[in-house]
Amino acid sequence: MSQIETIMEHNRKFVTEKEYEAYITDKFPDKKIAIVTCMDTRLVELLPKAMNLRNGDAKIIKNAGAVISQPFGSVMRSLLLAIYELQAEEVFIVGHTGCGMASLNSEHMINEMRERGISDDVLSTLENSGIRLRKWLRGFSNEKEGIIHTVEIVKKHPLLPSNIPVHGMLIDSMTGELELVVDGRENSSHS
């Protein structure tokens, strides 16, 4: 049975047996927080448990490395939506130990693209169009640096209200232990 068939079969049972009822909530985060974290599989259940979050408590935005690389990209837009439309009052940037973005090798990834059928013509066209793949695919040198950089991008965003604290945390991907890297209460205004 394929993954899609397995998922659809499970979903039919989930709905028929009304298992969804345990998760009913509304769109507003009960704890009034928005979290940007990594898409790492180890964090799917660990992060909410480690932060004492239940369904409906927080807006959780996931991407590779918990990085905001585009100040006017979709992650920042999602954060602003959480604040202005969904009543979030605090932002947490949560990176994790052992993050693959800390060791991301753009050359390796580009070579993998070639091996999976992306032509040199496509790669060349992108480069000639101003898209610097090696820079775009670059990670960070360590997890804390990535967290601090993303906190700064959010804090300095011209559309972020000055009273919104932006915290940075590092979660141990094995134990769930949280380390406060940036306490957003110390300086919740921006220039």
Descriptive report:
The chain is of the alpha/beta class. The chain is 36% helix and 16% strand. It has helices at 3-16, 43-50, 74-84, 106-115, 120-128, 133-136, 143-155; strands at residues 33-38, 58-63, 90-96, 166-171, 178-182. Helix 2 links the parallel strand 1 (33-38) and strand 2. It is globular and about 50 Å long. The mean pLDDT is 94.
> Secondary-structure element sequence?
HEHEHEHHHHEE
Overall structural class, as computed from helix and strand content, comes to: alpha/beta
Mean pLDDT: 94
Widest sheet, order of strands: 2-1-3-4-5
Largest beta sheet, briefly?
5 strands, mixed
Task: Give the number of helices.
Answer: 7
Shape: globular
The counted number of beta strands is 5
Classify the helix fraction into a percent range: 25-40%
Assess the beta-strand content as a share of residues. 15-25%
CA(first)-CA(last) distance: 55 Å
Radius of gyration: 19 Å
Keywords:
7 helices; five-stranded mixed sheet; 36% helix; 191 residues; alpha/beta; single chain
Give the gist of this structure.
This protein is about 35% helix and about 15% strand. It has about 190 residues and is an alpha/beta fold. A five-stranded mixed β-sheet has the order 2-1-3-4-5.
Describe the protein's topology:
Elements: H1 3-16, E1 33-38, H2 43-50, E2 58-63, H3 74-84, E3 90-96, H4 106-115, H5 120-128, H6 133-136, H7 143-155, E4 166-171, E5 178-182
Parallel strand pairs: 1-2, 1-3, 3-4
Antiparallel strand pairs: 4-5
